[in-house]
Structures are given as C-alpha cells and as structure tokens.
Amino acid sequence: ASTLVLAEHENGSIKAQTVSAVVAAKSLSEDNSVSLLLAGSGQSLKDAAKHAASCHPSVSQVLVADSDKFEYPIAEPWAKLVQMIQQSGEYSHIVSASSSFGKNVLPRAAALLDVSPITDVIEISSSSQFVRPIYAGNALCTVRYTGANPCMLTIRPTSFPIPPSSADSKCNEAPISEVDLSTLDEDYLGKSRYVGHTSQDAERPDLGSARVVVTGGRGLKSAENFKMVEKLAEKLGAAVGATRAAVDAGFVPNDLQVGQTGKIVAPELYLAFGVSGAIQHIAGMRDSKVIVAVNRDADAPIFQVADYGLVGDLFEVIPELIEKIPEKK
Amino acid sequence: MKIMVAIKRVVDYAVKIRVKPDKTGVETNNVKMSMNPFCEIALEEALKIREAGLASEVVAVSMGPPQCVDTLRTGLAMGADRGIHVEATTGLYPLNVAKIFKRLVELENPGLIFLGKQAIDDDCNQTGQMVAGLLRWPQATFASKVVLDKEKQVATVEREVDGGLETLSLDLPAVITTDLRLNQPRYATLPNIMKAKSKVIKKYTPQELNVDIRSDLEVVQVIEPPKRKAGVIVSSVDELIDKLKNEAHVI
C-alpha cells in the first residue's frame, strides 16, 4: 500500500492534525509507504517541507508543490493537484485531516478521480474498512470501500493521537522532491480568488489540540459574562470553547463552537459551564478524557456524560474556581 | 439568472434516532422526516437573492424515494418556483447525487447552485464540493455571508473555516454550500402552502438522465456508540478541585 497525505502548514510548520493523518495512514497497513504533499509558495513552504521530512518516522517522502496558485489553500488548484499526482503516482489511499481544509478539498479531488470519499473516519479496521459517526455521533457506521484506487479518507485528528515519541525523532529525514506543475494550468482555476481572512485571538492554545478546554453555554447570558470563562481558561492555560447557542447569541465568534457542526475536541480535561448538553454539542466533546459540568439545572443532560458534576450557580462557581485553582505549572 | 438548490429529505433534527436491532441502519419507518436544516438555509439564501431582483427563478431539486415530493412541496411552499424530483429507490451516495446533479445542471443551465454544507443523517459534507468538481466550477463551502454582484457576475462569499472567517471571490457560475449562520430560514405560510400545490414538479429517473448508479461503498453495520458512564456529583468547588487534582490528576 502507498498513501498520499494532504498536508496543512502554517508559519513554516506542519500542523498537528496533519501528523494525526500520518498516524492514521500508518495504521492502514503494515508496509504502507506514506508521502506527504505540501503546497504553497516561498520560504514558509521550504521551512514546512523541512519540518515535514522529520515530523513522523513513517513519512517516506515529501512532495512539494511550489506555486503562487497555492499561496492560499484554495480548493480548485488543490483538487487538480491531487488528481494530477494520483495519475502519475497511483496511490492506494489518499488521506487528510477532516479540518475545514480537508473537507473542502478532498471531496472535490475525489469527484475528479471518480471515487467515493469517506468523511470523518474515527477507526481504521483494515485497509478498506472504516468506522465513522453518523447522525451527529448518535450512531457509528462501519463502511467498506469496494472501488478502485485510490480510497480517499478524511480522518478525525482526535481519534488518531500523535505518540509523544514521534515529535523528536530526527533519525530518518525523508527525501523532499518538487512536483512538476507544468500541466497544472487550466483556465477555470483563476475563477476563485482569495480575498482575505479574519482570524481570532492567536494567543490562546488552539481549540482542536489543547490539553484543557473551558466551554461556556447559553447559561453565561452575555458576552460580558463570557469573559469569566476566558479568565478561567487563562488561569488553566486552556483553550476556550462555546456551544452553538452561545455563538448564535453573539457571545463569541463562530470558530469557538464545539459540536457536530463546529470543532470536535478530545482534551484531557473538558470543563462545561452553563452548557445544557444538546446532542450536537456532546457529539463534539464526548471523547474528552475527563468531563466536568457546572449547571444550575440538576436535570441537564450534560450531567449524563460528565465525570464530575456540580449543581450550582456558575456566577459563583467560576470566580471561586479562578481563585482556588492552582496556577498552571 | 436561474438558481438551483439541492434539498434532502432526512430524519427530523428533533427526533432521537434509533439504531435497528439487526444493525443494518437507523430506523426511518414511522419517524418524522423533514428537510435537512442546512438545505433550508440554502433555499432561503436563493429566495432572498431572487427577492432582491438578482435572480429570476429558483429551482429546488430532491433525489430519493417518492416521499421526497413532500419535501419538495415544503420547498415550493417556502417560495421555490418549481421542483425536480429524481426518483431512486436504492440508496444514493454523494458521488451518485453529484453526477445526477451535473446532468440536471447541463439541462437547466443555472448561474448559481446552493447546497447545504452537509446532511444531518450521513454527515458526509461532500456533495457540494463534488458537484463543483465535476462541473469544473468554482466553489465556496461553509458560507456565512453571500454578496452577489450581478453586473460583474461575481459572488463574494465569507466562509467559516478553522481559526476564523475566509473571504473568497468567485466568478459565476459557481457552487456555494451553506453553514448555520448564513440566514434564518422562513416558515411556509398557509396561503403559500396552498399555492405550492399547483407548482410543477418534474420527475426523472437516473436512467433517463443516463447516470449509472453504481456504488463503491458498502455499509457493513450501524451500531450505537458506546455509552459514557455518568460520574459523580460533587457538592462544592473545593471537592471538585480535590477530585481533579488527586483522583483524575488533570490539574
């Protein structure tokens, strides 16, 4: 077997979710050779390629597509690139993280290659059999891929954790080679153009990979009150999350939403304040190791999944926690 | 300009689903079915564009069993001008749907296509991207804002991506998939429900459209997820901190 992993990079480094995709690719079969595909331009791409070469011992090759077309992660040239590489590479599998990038690009590439992709894989049973959640995680579906190569997957990064040892193993640096892009030109590629990007506060840990997540729900009542959650998160060195209700009410921006249609998280510690526990929200955090829920309503469904529940007024509990919780080490 | 909107009939979002005992799927008999919420948002956006005078017609398309006509009627009652039903009794995967949709686009020549970003039953999040790929059209997925410039034939779309919002500019024709915060879908009023009864729904089969419905996927089993066992209720912040420190060892 041979697998192509679509890599995401930022500021010259490979993103953690891409390394999770490599971990997933490795588990497809014993003798799998994994190629990482990076696209971008300039120095940040070169740095990312260097990082890619040693980001995980399973990476056997790094392919680099260097072009202005890839300055931003646009689906049209990316999908075309994947199709082009598959035609010369004949990979058995093509994998990406099920991030907003992977979900945008991989199905389009699959259509060009005339295969059915499989979204949000959480378990790899064999090289052609996979488990994925359906109905917002209320059922688990095992699917078998019976089509021709390539079998295309997006994987949930939280289900394929990166072993701590793989980060520092510099022993085998995979060779880096440039992709020939001379046949990439097609006039339709210019029909979608990047205009801009607004990003949120980058000082806090990333919600998708944080060790601790503190989430607020509708119970916070206002954007002003939500700052208490942020203060507690700061004390814990945690990422901040929110329910759909809190986002819709305008307390916080959309990219903090945890749930089936937002971010899927699985931190070591998940603290939920004023969160009722709608199915869609639980689907996004149920794999957390330890769940704490604080809610005034003792019947709130969130208590059914919480390891530790505290029935009480969060406007008293949060300040007390901020005061009493030990400083992070 | 004509706008096409895909709408899917799914188990109503408020229904607590049940996995069938024989593990072949989720029970859909005697269960309330509705239009996929993301498709409602897609249709609403198309209707708003038509009402702003930027489009002349909104065509709603649904694929699947005969009951999809009910879902199409809901769409017509919301305000779509006419419907197309592609009747298929076997299950359709996103690649099948995308191929059928491509054929319909060739027949209808729309300037813009809206689809929901995903269906709340299979949660695939694929069809819009695949339609765009097959047509070689530009795509903007997970849209939270759409601004149309009729003169320039350009759509400016704000997208919900990891870590913020991204803005793309697309030349029409284009495919846009809709996210939760794009708009608030309208309810169908009684007079509009009555009016919808006389609107036209054209019927096709995949065979008539010359689309081969083969499948490269097979469902092996559908099961319930493992239950998380409920934990303990603590009585104070001090007890909570003590448990987190000395029992769970997470702080």
TrEMBL record, chain B:
PANTHER family: ELECTRON TRANSFER FLAVOPROTEIN BETA-SUBUNIT, ELECTRON TRANSFER FLAVOPROTEIN SUBUNIT BETA. Its main location: mitochondrion. Residues 23-213 form the Electron transfer flavoprotein alpha/beta-subunit N-terminal domain. The keyword Acetylation does not apply. Belongs to the ETF beta-subunit/FixA family. The electron transfer flavoprotein serves as a specific electron acceptor for several dehydrogenases, including five acyl-CoA dehydrogenases, glutaryl-CoA and sarcosine dehydrogenase. It transfers the electrons to the main mitochondrial respiratory chain via ETF-ubiquinone oxidoreductase (ETF dehydrogenase). Keywords: Electron transport, Mitochondrion, Transport. One of its GO terms (molecular function) is electron transfer activity. InterPro entries: ET-Flavoprotein_bsu_CS, ETF_a/b_N, ETF_b, ETF_beta_N, Rossmann-like_a/b/a_fold. The lineage of its organism: Eukaryota, Viridiplantae, Streptophyta, Embryophyta, Tracheophyta. SUPFAM superfamilies: Adenine nucleotide alpha hydrolases-like (SSF52402). GO terms for biological process: amino acid catabolic process; fatty acid beta-oxidation using acyl-CoA dehydrogenase. Heterodimer of an alpha and a beta subunit. It comes from the Eukaryota. It is found in: Mitochondrion matrix. This is Electron transfer flavoprotein subunit beta. One of its GO terms (cellular component) is mitochondrial matrix.
